[in-house]
Amino acid sequence: MSSEHYEVAIKDKMTLSIEEAAAYSGIGMNKLRELTKSPFCDFVLYVGKKTLIKRVPFEEYINRATEV
Q1: Would residue 48 be called left, alpha or beta, if left means φ above 0 and alpha means ψ between -120 and 50 degrees?
Q2: pLDDT in tens, 14-62
Q3: Residue 3 backbone dihedrals phi, psi, to 5 degrees
Q4: Taking CA 57 as the corner, what is the angle to CA 51 and CA 12, rounded to the nearest 5 degrees?
Q5: Residue 57 neighbours by CB distance under 10 Å
Q6: pLDDT over 70 at 1, yes or no
Q7: 10-64 maps to which CATH number?
Q8: What is the secondary structure of 21-64 as a DSSP string?
Q9: Disulfide engineering: 21 pairs with which of 41, 49, 53, 57, CB 3.0-4.6 Å?
Q10: Strand duo 50-54 + 15-16: pairing
C-alpha cells in the first residue's frame, strides 16, 4: 500500500476547507463559518463534522454578492 500525497491547486479542487476558502477569497474564516450556518447557504457541504465549501457555487455567490 502506497502512502502517496497529492497536491491539488485550489483552482482544480471541487471543495475547499474553510481555511482554503478564506485564503482564496479574502473573506475571513469567522465570516465564512457564519455564512455556512445559514439554511440558505448553497455552497456548503458537510462531511460528518467537517465543513467544506463547494468552490464553483462559492465563486458564483461572490460574483452575485455586493456585500458580505
Answers
A1: left
A2: 999 999 999 999 999 999 999 999 999 999 999 999 999 999 999 999 9
A3: -110, 50
A4: 80
A5: 14
A6: no
A7: 3.90.105.50
A8: HHHHH---HHHHHHHHTSTT-SSEEEETTEEEEEHHHHHHHHHH
A9: 53
A10: antiparallel
Q: What is the rounded distance in angstroms from the CA atom of residue 53 to the CA atom of residue 32? A: 9
Phi-psi region of 26 (alpha: psi -120 to 50; beta: other; left: phi over 0): left
CA–CA dist 56, 40 (Å, integer)? 16
CA–CA separation, 29 vs 68, rounded Å?
12
- Please state, in angstroms and rounded to a whole number, the distance separating the CA atoms of residues 60 and 56: 6
What residues pair up with 40 in beta bridges, in sequence order?
Answer: none
Which pTM was predicted? 0.87
Predicted local confidence at residue 2, as pLDDT:
63
Adjacent-strand bridge partners of 16: 53
